[in-house]
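## Example record

The block below lists the input lines for one assembly entry, exactly as stored, with component labels intact.
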Amino acid sequence: MSRFQFGRRLRSVWWRPPVETEVDDEMAFHLAMRVRDLVDSGMSEAEARQEALRRLGDPAELRRRLTRLGKARDHSMQRTEWWASLVQDLRQAVRSLRKQPGFTAAAALTLAVGVGATTAIFSVLYSVVLRPLPIPEPDRLVWISRTWEGRPGGTLSVGNYADLLAGQNTLASYTAGYSAPFILGSGEQPESVRGARVTSSFFTVLGVAPALGRVFAAAEDEPGAGSVVVLSHRLWTRRFGADPAVVGQSILLNAVPHIVLGVMPARFDFFENWDELWAPAGFSTRQAADYDGSYLFHVYGRLRPGATAEQTKAAMAPTVARLREQYPDFNSSLEVHVEPLMRAVLNNAVADRIWVLFGAVGLVLLIGCVNVANLLLARGVGRARELAVRAALGAGRGRIIRQLVTENLVLAALAGLLGLGVAHLGIKLILAGAPPNLARLDQAGLDLATATFAVAVAFGSVLLFGVLPAARVAAMGIASALRDGSRAVAGGGEWLRRGLVATEVGLALVLLVGAGLLIRTAIHLGRVDPGFDPGPVLSGRISLPRVGYESWERVTQTYTRISEELAQTPGIEAAALVSQVPMGPGGNTNGLIPEGRPIEGRSAIMARLRLVTPDYFDVMRIPLRSGRAFTDDDRIGTTRVMIVSEGFAREAWPGQDPIGKRVACCEQAPDHGPMWKEVIGVAGDVRTNGPAERAELEYYLPITQTPAGAWEWLGRTMTFVVRGPQAPAALGTAVRSAIATVDPAVPVFQIATMSERLERTGAEARFNTRLLSILGAIGLGLAIGGIYSVIAFFVNRRTRELGVRMALGASAADIRRLVLRQGLGPVVVGIGVGLVGSIALTRLLSGQLRGVSATDPITLAGVTLLLLLVAAAATVLPARRATRIDATVAMREE
Amino acid sequence: MSASPTEFLQGTLEVLILKTLSWGPRHGYGIAQWLEDRTDQALVIEEGSLYPALYRMERKGWIEAEWGTSELGRKAKFYALTPGGRTRLRADTAAWRAFSSAVARVLDPAESN
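Predicted structure tokens for the full assembly:
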């Protein structure tokens, strides 16, 4: 199309003569004609002019009206024209895509896999990490905690809570509470439910109203007020069949009737282990004056608009200073930390892992896009003639690019649609294989947010990766296609195609290195000694109610009896009780001061308490490194004893024999001085948080010497461990009936074998490893496809050249070498770039790696080798085809 | 037909214009002239309505306009029927025939069987 034609075409659309001129000209013509006819019929010129104007009515008004109508007309015509050309382009695009179903299917499916996988991971990211909690203005929530050993997160006493929050002016509301097991119901099916005792302001602070009924009022949060309870949606559904009539009814909690006031909405179940019911804390004046060791309370507040956590902390500083002075026994080292609650509760480790996965799936998408760009380029070469003909027939460069882009858009729509299907499947697979305790994951799915994301990704990637090939194809096609056939484009696009192959090999390498490192970690973790023998050991929790077990002595006696009863049960080889089993819930941590250090908070070593019956070490097969185990002779009245873990011994007495050393902990002597306990043994370290985590410092106390107050810390709950000769799961019934002989009202819950607990701690990491491996495999597959298609294309385009070479005496081996060199060149470049990239990127994984470094040479070498082999394999077919080229036929082509 | 009187008249004018143009392209003045001649001046076309009707019909795509040279050598805007306009004319003509014969039957019952 010449510039002149092009200009005229544009003007016809955009630069029509102004409507005003058009109207004026038309009116002038009309008047002139009328005047002429009137003059012909005998009027004078002046009379005729007057008559003609009269017939028009009000000429000024008519002119205005016509101008308006004319503008509306032009506008609608432009729109029609635009739509018509779009429909034409779309029809053309669909036709041309259907003409090459192979290309269309390959490109759309490749993109669909990329888009679908990305969307599936995005939905996980969105539901677990990005979706805001259903709390109004969550940024205003703060967590006020005690700093222990420089680490915030410690709980506060009621006295400290009352004093710290009285008179502060940065918080609009605040609440204190603690979680505890509640025994729900009685008779056949008593159940232990995790609940919380909270102040009545709890619901105000969180800002969530009940779905049914009401929450408790301040008057109901007084000591001695009637017993009331608010249920979570989960508990209400599970235990009460979502019956609205339960509101107002009385239920048995810890053997005391409680009136159900209301039910919270389902969205209030933020976390998997969130409390299932809330009862008033009912702090008494005595408790409010309690500044001593019962640091049980979590304190939360809602900031006034505009206030910050730092301001709250500053406002509390004078009170903290006063409390230190006033109560030197308990508060001498009091430090208070205030931080945004959301930052504290959102699991950052999980969020980080999901972000890494999202990054990885982004790489898969990029590889897919590179493949599609490659396909578009190759296809453009094949179409060079068609495009050249169109150019010759007058289609401008812009018009051709527009057509190519329209084709890309149709492709994107197709890929987006298929991608949604892939995403749907992917989300299903993820949910099926996901670890059970990943909070909020169950909300992942194809909703508006994820569908929008999928569509945006599909169009975004096609536009981004389709424009370059389109521009290149259009330019080459127009300039030289008619003259040179298609080879000019083939030659010109070579660097681009090789660059694309190198890119995708690099991306695949990064992905595979990441997956490889996680796999090596999994192998390593499989070999880690957890410090105990999970063997055929069954564990489960037992909780004693307050009613009937008021005194601590009675709790201790009952647990001792249960332990004896279990040990005598047929089918059970050995039985013991422990306050918290490794990888199990519950438990408590205390500050221990080894003798010789000053008696103050700063000298304390934090260690996890295991209150045990004597046979615990036998049942769990935890080795004693030195000293002796507990016996029945360690009771009240004899020397108070403890066993410490190896790690604790190293920390407290480096290089010394810990046996016989004394440690102050957990309680006060009658004279308010420290209560000393003597170390009688050293136990092997136990990886209590799973094989992936380092062993914690631990200490063991015999249940017969339970410290005062310990039953409160532990919620009167113990965990049984029984070892049987056969499958441990089968022991459940025997355990239940043995415990029922002591008291049938005691709930037994959270039963699991130790192997299951071990399995569960690694579940999320394993799931993560599996997902990254799948992504790596998809990336590798896409890269192989890319390498193959480029080599095949090369052989196809160079048929004549290869034929000539063979005619001149090149052997089949020579040809094979040529093709292999052609293919492996960009692969080697890509591997080089990928190695540099993965050394930079795998650092993001280092938090998840165990027993292997982020730059593990074995993984890097293995992945490199794998890619080289796979790339070589991808060249085999095209190479074979190349060696079979018939020279004479090839020469005749084109 | 539930059209208001003005719409009714507008529709009448439009079908007359379509009919006029079915013999070939004409400028606005030519359309007015032709209609006056055909109806022996019985129908005086309001020029204040003629041109707005033409613009509206152009927008609807029934007619299209092009600048050309008139019989006197002056630049004039000629209107021509589009295929859409031709379809419209056929439909409107049929509707008019049905309408007028119905009216005739009422006004002059003797003439009908």
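Chain B touches chain A through 20 residues (CB under 8 Å). The helical segments of chain B are 5-21, 28-38, 47-60, 83-107.
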